[in-house]
Amino acid sequence: MRNIFxxxxxxxxxxxxxxxxxxxxxxxxxxxxxxQAAFINSSSAVSARVFTVYNNFxxxxxxxxxxxxxxxxxxxxxxxxxxxxxxASFQQITVNDSVYKQLYxxxxxxxxxxTINKLNNYITIDKGKLQGVGIKMGVIxxxxxxxxxxxxxxxxxxxxxxxxxxxKVSARVGTGGNYGSVSWDGSNPExxxxxxIPKQIKIALGDKIYxxxxxxxxxxxxxxxxxxxxxxxxxxxxxxxEIKLSTDFRSIxxxxxxxxxxxxxxxxxxxxxxxxx
Amino acid sequence: MIIEFLFLLIRFIVLTLIQVLILNxxxxxxxxxxxxxxxxxxxxxxKMPQWxxxxxxxxxxxxxxxxxxxxxxxxxxxxxxCFMRPQVLKxxxxxxxxxxxxxxxxxYMGFRWFATYASILVVIHxxxxxxxxxxxxxxFGFMLLKIVLSTLLSLAIIFLTEFFFMRKKAR
Lengths: 277, 171
Fold this sequence. Notes:
heterodimer, A: 277 residues, Thrombin, subunit H, six-stranded antiparallel barrel
């Protein structure tokens, strides 16, 4: 007994070292699982407060640039208003209002913190549970898709952007082309990888990549990016495609969280079908 | 004693803010991830007992983790740095040992001493941190480039900071 005690005293630093390293590794591993709510991240109260104060400071500097971008977006949205279209089909006049049911609801949010040069990047926004943001909702920006909500607190949320190892989304070439999968290899925040497009499909530089509706997180045909380079892979049947992301993560400061109002219903239905089998 | 503690605390807060508000947001290519906060651990008193050192390292690392969404990675790297620090201090010990008044800083120990001391520990810290960060990606070539370039940048920033404070003390 005395031996054990003297051993403990003698190697107390080493034992403490091992203990602290193990708890760090546990933290790292715990945070890896997507579904588990992480308790230490930048949506936690203290760090989010610091980032908000700092961000309010910095915002003044970028105000004019930001105004310009918002004005551009307003113009683009105005172009999509019903009033800016000439109604060519007289059938539509008889269409009942209840035919159109709102499917997506957008929650505007301000980016309070963002990293882009890590291997796993995160975005923190200033809207959370109380404003209707929920885990696994999609997030889009003025340019196109941004990411997926990972964790929410009362007034803040953290987002896994495209620039993260765990991010994957189905997408297709053009609005009717082949399905593939978008992911990021960690090297350049302007480009992402687009896989699973078979070699026999014809693609061209500059082809646009859009999301597909089956992900339920993003509205169908949200822009992801454009093909910037592609080479046929010699080992398998697919292309190696690099796409230029349409969202400029270096300057993004306002985003929209996408709330799919039918998601619960879809999830329930799919769950039930799986259980029946 | 209390003044010394307050001084450490202020240094910690300032370095943490510089780290998370400025260095983490630098618009540099992905291979440059400079870290200044290890300077805080380098400058802790020489005679500090190792168990306190380890706990302080863990707390400091966790604080940085809190702000950069890295969950335990900075904590792990900082604890390793603190664990290796007494050995490195022994390695670079001047003949005749450390004086009671010595502090492990540039202004007390001179450039050559500080350069060796800081380089060894910052390299250990960065190696371990980027190793943890890259485990899941498996791009080891990219990691090596990142370790080399980020370490050089971190050391440059740490030396500049130390030079700045040395000049102030001399006046």
